[in-house]
Protein: tRNA N6-adenosine threonylcarbamoyltransferase
Amino acid sequence: PVVLGIETSCDETGVGIVSDGVLLGDALATSMDEHARFGGVVPEIAARAHLHAITPMVRHALDRAGLRFGDIDAVAATAGPGLATAVQVGLAAGKAYSLSLGVPLYGVHHLAGHAAVDILDHGPLPARCVALIVSGGHTSLLLLGDLARDPVTHLGDTADDAAGEAFDKIARLLGLPYPGGPAIDRIARDGDPTAITFPRPMTGPTDPPYRFSFSGLKTAVARWVERHRDRPLPVADIAASFQEAVADTLTRKALAACHDHQADTLLLVGGVAANSRVRALAEERCRASNIRLRVPSPRLCTDNGAMIATLGDLLAAADISPDPLHLSADPSAVLHGALLHGPH
Ligand code: ATP
Ligand code: MG
Ligand code: FE
Structure:
């Protein structure tokens, strides 16, 4: 099937067209610059930007794919989680395309999209794997089966901040530009990751093995900065040391989950999976443990439309019943499976 995917959960208006696990065309607009002076995404601004961008992005993706509206067999749109007003725009657009083209609609879970997108880079997912989803709003260790049919098993989530959120907050603390993740990644290349030993939260012998916590790490960095106010801050060293603490914690727990659950594949996805140190350390540790690492190319790690189209392609190919047009968005939907509202 040829599937049109629409993603508007945050500040990216993403459209992708995928058929049988192959990306035919995509387009991405972002309102990132409009949020920069507020230090974070402003929902109303994001929603209005989606409204302006959605139709042009769909046309753009179709053009790039060399397709017409009549070629679309199904539509998938993010129905949650995300900023309520932002999700609504993409879901409403998805419903409109579904109705006007007379094709099925799938309201899908954004995080399942983050996982599915790796199919575009590395082919079908294995029957079973451990997935670490690390993004701006989530940090979850999961056990995945057939993504189209099976429920997802949560091994552990974050007790407080998400990993991406920690990157964004530390960047702000260090006076780095928004968004913080890519800025820290860049400046950390000039720093020494062993300069400062920041805590590896939740890694003690009595801590829950798959649970994360990043607010304490954020406080530890803030305290260090506070204590060294009298000298010029070694921003690159702080960034590299913080990044090392996050990469170490994430990969340690992910590898432990693979061992404990006899999984031979680790799927590392979400915006923070674009981080160069997280990728390198995951590669190093997976190689040492004989675990196959799957991590999408950086541009597919952050929000995009191709990930939603990939998920729709999986659902349509598996003959999963589509959603009714009165399907509602859920801004805080927990990940149970590919479809936001579960199988019908
Ligand atoms: P969610 O997917 O949980 O709803 P989101 O959609 O906002 O959240 P993503 O687009 O998946 O999140 O990822 C954005 C996050 O990834 C931001 O917090 C950003 O700082 C972080 N990020 C992006 N690139 C990098 C990088 N190179 N290093 C570290 N973090 C990064
Ligand atoms: Mg974004
Ligand atoms: Fe995301």
